[in-house]
């Protein structure tokens, strides 16, 4: 049986239904005010990928009791376009609909590609397209919506993006690092003296031998020695001044001088943030190769934009998409490069209250040996961590919220502010993306660690000389920095 639709140029389209176990998805029809119609067809099963979608409707008068010729007003006909979010959308901006009008329609979908037959005596060829039909459906125009309203192809989502509306399943941020995009990323240039982990780094945007580069489709963030930069200026890390005032991205932390054991950060590193993009709820995927080397660790984070619950010690929270400490051989396994951790951090001093999920890589491999896809799904109900598509951690706050997981010893004056939020507080605000490399600090590496060479960790986390003691041990840790860079292949954020 053939379903004759119409002629275009020198072809007559002939649609040939196929007999198979397949159900054409139901379409969603939306009438627009003052003119227009949208018809959305959801995606089909993966076993039947669609190649085209045709809507063919006859428009009848308001309150028409019968599908009769005398009630016919016009025809609505055309092919739909494939949508980036999935499904197919047919639009006609010119048809004028009225309430209670009736549309009698057919839907045809194709799962293949057609053939052009030989021309007939009039020089016209049949174009035969195999597919599936839904015949004799009826839609009554019961409402007319603003053309700027959410379309039927744009599903409701809990995801929010600063400054715009988004749809379920929409890719709301993506960078494959074909080049460095200043419109997407800001390179940090400051001294993080108020960073709750107090890493032994300054973040600098260097013009020569930069810490942040893009090459061969990969973002590279490279830590360097501050002393190497100082030597070019005949300065010493033990007595010099680090002045990042020009171009400083954090005005309160732009310069410092070494005085006694309080030395400037011994490591220069890179950090980028999605300065113009922030979101609430969604799934972030980061394909990355993590740094290896003693006392290194990556920063693959979601950080709060407004810090409405406070800024001290992660009071407004931070979401670690993935974190692996760089030591390849250490006496306590959880601090080595085969131990993946991540998830929500509410208070940097008490992170062990939430860090009870981990994933150890199989065999003798290390996480930093190769690229992996690190994912974090953040919803109003839970936080789910995955690596290479495999779930390894799930945080579900329940009725009392994530804050209830913190023991009393972790709570301070800031804690009461969390009661102003919902069960996901403080993770119910806009967060932005951060990528970087940090070193040492007073949180990530416990006291008492030793490397495989039985060399003790050179600083105490509560010691006044932490950064100085770390620098004095350079001859032991620096030779292990054979792969100190964070490499990022892509970042992608998808709405729920």
From TrEMBL:
Source taxon at top rank:
Eukaryota
| GO terms of biological process kind | carbohydrate metabolic process; innate immune response
Q: Where is the WW domain?
A: 453-486
Q: Which residues form the signal peptide?
A: 1-20
> Ranges for the CBM39 domain?
22-146
Family per UniProt? Belongs to the insect beta-1,3-glucan binding protein family.
Name of the protein described by the UniProt record? Beta-1,3-glucan-binding protein
